[in-house]
Write a structure and sequence with these properties.
- The protein is mainly alpha-helical.
- It has one domain.
- The protein has 10 helices and 4 strands; from the N terminus they run H-H-E-E-H-H-H-H-E-H-H-E-H-H.
- A two-stranded antiparallel sheet has the order 1-2. A two-stranded parallel ribbon has the order 3-4.
- Strand 1 and strand 2 form a beta hairpin.
Amino acid sequence: MTYDQQKRILDLVVAYTLVIAFLPFWLIIPLLIFFDSGWPVIFTHKRVGKGGVDFQLFKFRSMVLNADEILHQKNHRLLKKFKQGDWKIAAKDDPRITPLGRFLRAFTIDEFPQLFNVIKGQMSMVGPRAYVRKELEEQSKKYPATKAYIPHILSVKPGITGPWQTSGRNEIPFDKRAKMDAQYAMKQSIKNDFLILLNTPKAMLSKW
């Protein structure tokens, strides 16, 4: 059995197990989001997948409804901070995040719907971060050395968790993040995937 076949089995087993294990969340979280800030409760965002093919990534909505408009059209100071932070802003500094959204993000609950991206075959449980296309374009100009990493990153499916997600997240600048993701893509193994999965709960809790 090839690595890709092993990984697909691992993806499906873990994803379906977590969907069933967290069944109450699929009922409670949407209701909480609705009562906190209305519909929709699921946020979809275009990301770059394997082979450079775009797909819609699913999340529980943790921001106000017009979050993108606020960032790109109404709050230039926030957009400047966003780009200076390598396309990441700490939750405590982002006024677009709802009170409930801060809680969901703190425990990575907002990313649970990505399990369905895994089941659909668009993502894996373990892999590089799912990047935004414009982020890759702008950041590779800011960090020219990362241009060599991008083909490796896009040679595999993005993951719900991965080397970046378990190693400091927002504190890691784009150039180091891209290098970590490229190294993962070039040295994939089931053993490494298991180790990252085992380290993920600790990384989630360390955000608190």
